[in-house]
UniProtKB/TrEMBL annotation:
Protein name per UniProt: Glycerol-1-phosphate dehydrogenase [NAD(P)+]
PANTHER family: GLYCEROL DEHYDROGENASE, GLYCEROL DEHYDROGENASE 1
Any single biological process term in GO: phospholipid biosynthetic process
Lineage, top ranks: Bacteria, Bacillati, Bacillota, Clostridia, Eubacteriales
Organism: Eubacterium callanderi
Any one GO MF annotation of this record: oxidoreductase activity, acting on CH-OH group of donors
Gene3D superfamilies, alphabetized: 3.40.50.1970, Dehydroquinate synthase-like - alpha domain (1.20.1090.10)
Keyword vocabulary terms for this entry: Cytoplasm, Lipid biosynthesis, Lipid metabolism, Metal-binding, NAD, NADP, Oxidoreductase, Phospholipid biosynthesis, Phospholipid metabolism
Length: 393
């Protein structure tokens, strides 16, 4: 029972076990290779698909970071490789209809595997195509920037709006820490912010278990909690692109994905802090602006949600408040890693911020401390107070 807690991350692929939560869990990613020099594992991970053609997809940034090497490794191992390069002249790739369409066009009938080299956008685009065409894919991660490597949803832009489409898990995940530690620092900060968000995600989950009798799996909570402790313990070293700190960061991002995969809900990874982030992002997209990195938004939203827990402390069910540290501690953690700390730091204006506190709980049908505050008639008062604290009276 709960065997997964004794496994190293690279052993977690294809696990199945009876859990103390009463359910039988299985995790269907077939291969995980994370660590120093892990990109060398790519031919081994791809081996079962050697009969067919491999479609490898990258953009000009990720080609330089890892794509060139990935393609070379596959060529040298005798694979039949076809490449698709999105050349955006260094600009950010937006995962929209045109990107998904191009991948589909290049996917000839004899393609047996796709290899995506990148982080957010490329992973999501290839994941989406993989789920619709049933051609499996391997993700070669280039940045520890978000937790979507091991998640089954694909957020894409359609008609200028962002939708999160149901998709599928990757066949394999290859994460080379030597490559990821060289990612742009803002992407490393974004990944750290996404991990920080798990603090309030777990507290929100606990709240909903106690208020709504929602399902909870202690094994998953422990899996995530242990990964957070390791990652936060090395926060300061991230600034120096330290090997171990990068490894713990990508492990934490991956393990929350594993936890989500086990329980088939995103509770271990996302709570009210993600709802604020989505609210801001939708506002930016609606105004035609490029949204701030997902994890960066999540990071600065986390102390805000911690303030909600503080304000509601007298009404919280027993034990829930203890799961959320004081907001000042979370701010200090972000500062330690060199991340932005408040929504103001990343340019969210006062009006948008205040609106997001009032309306953010509606973004998803998911019970959180914001809805808890609403139910107790305290939402407006708390929103005003937090806004004044961050933006001044
Ligand atoms: Zn996230
Ligand atoms: Zn369980």
């Amino acid at each position: 029972m709960n065997e997964i807690l004794n496994l190293a991350i690279n052993e977690m692929a294809n696990t199945e076990f009876d859990c103390s939560c009463g359910r039988h869990h299985n995790f269907s990613i077939h291969d995980i290779a994370i660590g120093k020099g892990a990109i060398k594992e790519l031919p081994r991970v791809a081996e079962p698909f050697k009969e067919g053609k491999i479609l490898i997809v990258y953009d000009d940034n990720t080609y330089k970071a890892a794509g060139r090497e990935a393609k070379q490794l596959l060529d040298d191992a005798g694979f039949n490789v076809k490449e698709l390069l999105f050349d955006r002249g260094g600009e950010l790739l937006i995962p929209d209809e045109s990107v998904v369409g191009r991948i589909l066009e290049e996917q000839e009938l004899d393609v047996s595997l796709m290899v995506a080299v990148g982080s957010g956008s490329l992973n999501d685009s290839v994941k989406y195509v993989s789920s619709r065409t049933k051609v499996p894919y391997i993700i070669v991660c280039t940045a520890p920037s978000m937790d979507g490597y091991v998640a089954d949803g694909a957020p894409l832009i359609c008609n200028g709006y962002k939708y999160s489409y149901p998709a599928c898990l990757a066949y394999g995940v290859v994460g080379d820490t030597d490559i990821m530690k060289e990612a742009p620092m803002e992407l490393i900060h974004a990944g750290f912010g996404d991990v920080v968000g798990k603090i309030t995600a777990l507290a929100d989950w606990d709240l909903s278990v106690k208020v709504n009798d929602e399902y909870r799996c202690e094994t998953c909570v422990e899996l995530v909690q242990r990964a957070l402790d390791k990652c936060f313990g090395q926060a300061e070293a991230l600034k120096e692109r330290n090997d171990e700190a990068t490894l713990y960061l990508i492990e934490a991002l991956t393990l929350t994905g594993v936890a989500m995969g086990l329980v088939n809900i995103s509770r271990p990874a996302s709570g009210a802090e993600h709802m604020l982030s989505h609210y801001w992002e939708m506002d930016y997209i609606a105004r035609g602006l490029t949204p701030i990195h997902h994890g960066t938004q999540v990071g600065v939203a986390t102390p805000v949600i911690a303030m909600f827990f503080e304000e509601m402390a007298d009404l919280l069910p027993e034990g829930t408040g203890a799961l959320c540290p004081p907001h000042k501690e979370i701010e200090a953690l972000l500062r330690k890693a060199g991340c932005p700390v408040t929504p103001k730091d990343i340019g969210i204006d006062r009006d948008l911020f205040h609106r997001s506190l009032i309306e953010g709980y509606k973004v998803r049908p998911r019970y959180s401390v914001m809805e808890f505050a609403k139910a107790h008639g305290r939402l407006e008062e708390i929103a005003d107070k937090i806004t004044n604290t961050i933006y001044g009276e």
